[in-house]
Design a protein that fits this description.
single chain, alpha+beta, 60s Ribosomal Protein L30, Chain: A, five-stranded mixed sheet, two-stranded antiparallel sheet, 3 helices, 30% helix, globular
Length: 156
Amino acid sequence: MTEPEIERRLAALGLELPAPAAPVAAYVPVVIAGGLAHVSGQLPFIDGRLVTGRLGEDLSVEDGAAAARACGLMILAQLKAALGSLERVERVVKLGAFVNSTGAFVDQPKVANGASELMAAVFGDAGKHARSAVGVPVLPLGAAVEVDAIVAVSPA
């Protein structure tokens, strides 16, 4: 039995998926409908700690991109838990990035690149997606970034 391609890519990138986070309110992490997996907004955990703060105030663009990448890893963890295998991912369709930022901060797209570049690295061309990157004044639990996803998946 060979190791699945996506697992090999994750290992080659030196990435390990975190344990999927439990919902913090009345929702489920992933809903699969019509061949699409809708992944609820995921928060950034690095070394088991939530990344908090505001871009343009106490976090740099690099800090924000690392937080967005952590959100992307949590999206992958949620997908693997819901699908059983990341091999079922056919295409990342869209990411939505919400960046906790000051009114003067305008680099939300650079922050969101942390998640976008992760998806391309893991899934190749199938990881290239449509995206929004929006500045917001506050996020749940004071998180720096939140990212949600829509992903095309193959049948079980």
